[in-house]
């Protein structure tokens, strides 16, 4: 009799557990399988983040939420767990301040690609080669450096460049796409223009451009671009962190996706197209790996 009562008690507990699972809110279940990616409105970051979304959804079975924010807020969101990962961290110089501020709350993996560069960029027909020559030709540039979002690393470095080189120029804030549109318009009319630039960017494939020399090394040397993630992601989905650890794209591969998007293709469609054409490389990203420092 005792065994019968024990059996019934065990069955009752199992039923309660099953009922609890069935009654669990759907959004809570969904949250466990959702990866939240933050990105900034920069061509390279957009391209690589959409490629990551395609792989995570179509190859690894996750739902992915994409959120575009400013460069400052993306680090706050990452540290607070409002997003799981951000794939556009430039180091050791460009985003050094953000990493120093939030470094105890976020974790680095990657790099996604190496050899990235920031600086001041002009069309090839602009007859100068160094930042030191800008003041001599101020009128041709109308005394303006066309920039992107305030707070971006290349903007902070450009403020330093204006001070260090004593440039009689104003730094105009805009956005990555607006800066590129201004560059395109100037080139169509063969006007002189200087913009804040970075590589990789599709504009180097579309236009004949050059970085002008930086003798004071204000913009630093070539950098790597990394993914940083919230520590909770490693607890919930270590295989996703493993994926970010192995994610690599060359400038040419990233530039291909960026160019498709710049030509009007939907970001998700461009990413899906690239993933479908590069299956061997994608598979290398999602094979299990041991993560070590």
UniProtKB/TrEMBL annotation:
Which Gene Ontology cellular component terms are annotated? ATP-binding cassette (ABC) transporter complex
Tell me, in one coarse class, where this protein mainly resides.
Answer: membrane
Which Gene3D superfamilies does its entry note? Glycine betaine-binding periplasmic protein, domain 2 (3.40.190.100), Periplasmic binding protein-like II (3.40.190.10)
Going by the UniProt record, its keywords in alphabetical order are: Cell membrane, Membrane, Transport
Answer yes or no on keyword Magnesium: no
Which GO molecular function entries does the Swiss-Prot or TrEMBL record give?
amine transmembrane transporter activity; carnitine transmembrane transporter activity
Give the ABC-type glycine betaine transport system substrate-binding domain ranges.
34-276
Identification of the protein by name: Glycine betaine ABC transporter substrate-binding protein
Q: Which organism is it from?
A: Halanaerobium polyolivorans
The organism's taxonomy opens as:
Bacteria, Bacillati, Bacillota, Clostridia, Halanaerobiales
């Amino acid at each position: 009799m005792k065994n019968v009562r024990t059996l019934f008690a065990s069955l009752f507990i199992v039923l309660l557990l099953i009922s609890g699972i069935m009654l669990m809110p759907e959004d809570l279940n969904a949250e466990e399988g959702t990866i939240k990616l933050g990105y900034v409105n920069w061509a390279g970051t957009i391209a690589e983040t959409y490629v990551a979304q395609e792989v995570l959804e179509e190859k690894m079975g996750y739902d992915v939420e994409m959120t575009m924010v400013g460069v400052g807020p993306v680090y706050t969101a990452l540290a607070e767990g409002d997003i799981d990962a951000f794939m556009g961290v430039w180091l050791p110089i460009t985003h050094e301040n953000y990493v120093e501020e939030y470094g105890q709350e976020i974790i680095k993996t990657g790099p996604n690609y190496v050899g990235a560069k920031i600086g001041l960029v002009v069309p090839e027909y602009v007859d100068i080669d160094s930042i030191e020559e800008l003041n001599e030709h101020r009128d041709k540039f109308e005394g303006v450096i066309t920039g992107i979002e305030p707070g971006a690393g290349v903007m902070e470095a450009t403020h330093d460049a204006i001070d260090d080189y004593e440039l009689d120029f104003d730094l105009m804030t805009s956005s990555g796409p607006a800066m590129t549109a201004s560059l395109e318009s100037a080139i169509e009319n063969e006007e002189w223009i200087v913009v804040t630039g970075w590589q990789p960017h599709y504009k180097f494939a579309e236009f004949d451009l050059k970085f002008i020399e930086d003798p004071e090394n204000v913009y630093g040397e070539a950098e790597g671009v990394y993914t940083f993630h919230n520590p909770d992601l490693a607890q919930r989905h270590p295989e996703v962190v493993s994926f970010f650890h192995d994610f690599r794209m060359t400038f040419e591969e990233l530039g291909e996706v960026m160019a498709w998007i710049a030509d009007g293709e939907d970001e998700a469609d461009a990413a899906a197209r690239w993933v479908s054409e590069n299956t061997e490389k994608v598979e290398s990203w999602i094979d299990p790996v041991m993560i070590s420092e």
